[in-house]
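Q: Could you write out the predicted structure for this multi-component system? I'm mainly interested in how the pieces pack against one another.
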Amino acid sequence: MSLTADHSGTPIAASKVAEAGSRLLSYIARNPGTNRADLVLASGLSRTTVAKRLDEFIRMGMVRETLGVSIGGRPPLELTLSPESGVLLAADIGATHCSLEIADLEGTVLAQDTYAIVIGDGPDAVLQEIDDRFRALLAGLGRPVSAVLAIGIGVPGPVEHLTGTVVRPPIMPGWDGYRVPDFFSERYGAPTLVDNDVNLAALGEYWLRNESAEHLLYVKISTGIGCGIVSGGVLHRGAEGAAGDIGHIRVPGASESICACGNIGCLEAVAGGEAIARSLRELGLTDVYTAKDVTRLAIEGNRLARRAVIDASEKIGQVLASLVSFYNPNAIVIGGPLTELNEELLAGIRTAIYQRALPLATRALRVERSTHSNSVGALGARAMALDFILSPSGVQQLLAR
Ligand SMILES: [Zn+2]
């Protein structure tokens, strides 16, 4: 066996094995119930290589080969990722709530927990409680900590994805510079991936839709406005992880409102939840400070609030129209508290997009609201963890265990 190393220091023979393994496991994950012949065709690998790698995965308990249902003649042998092979842990940390999930590799959610937190308590307290609750859930399932294959974590602030470091988060006091994976890797001995909540919601929404939304924009309208981008089924983070920061795109002709970033006329400063609430206070309404307050008033039938949401949605639509021309997504999914106002919100956004973007870019475009707002972040965190396990580096780590 060659011991020459590639640029990451991995022996080339080992990295080839991991690359082939990654191709096979990824195909099985996306096509559960597939068979050896299809795998050879789809992977472009030789029959011998497929057989060798598969036998190894079956021996490790990662892949299961079972008799399918016969449609006349010998029943086919079907391949799936084994639910017994281990579990994925996912945590979606919000500013005020945290959702936890434990799932197997087939995608079955085995345990869930949602509870209130204060993000400003800092990483030590917040992560310790997550650790305690994960251990309680695992114990309830009768699974040891060693069964954890990977961990996915979402946080409500900017993250350098490569290292999982929180970078200058506006609403997470005490977290700046904290490397989240260090906390979990030490305790679980499993790879830990971290990203911001909007990116993970985008990934979760893609998982709910699959091929029908391979090019998807997820737009979260809350206090601020952010966007997660899925391109060809893969999260697009950009060079520094800042892709999708659409809240600071200038809205042409908008008011000169000053944004938290110091510029004027940013989308967030004229159409974010806080901006809508401020405009309502200027019209004489009281007790309205957040996107949730605006939503409550509009649901109660307050006409000023409904009008303000429609105005804001038109501005958001203007910016999204440019993004549609630039990016040509199949789907735009709108999330955040305002999505309870289905029609007011979506009508303005759709009108602005269809007026401005070209017909070829919009003819198959769906603009819809998130229907799983509360759970889609944890789903995205789990998807990120599984994507890692199925990647060549993930397979490399699995084989080394
Ligand atoms: Zn700004």
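A: Regarding packing and overall arrangement: The two ends are 20 Å apart (CA to CA).
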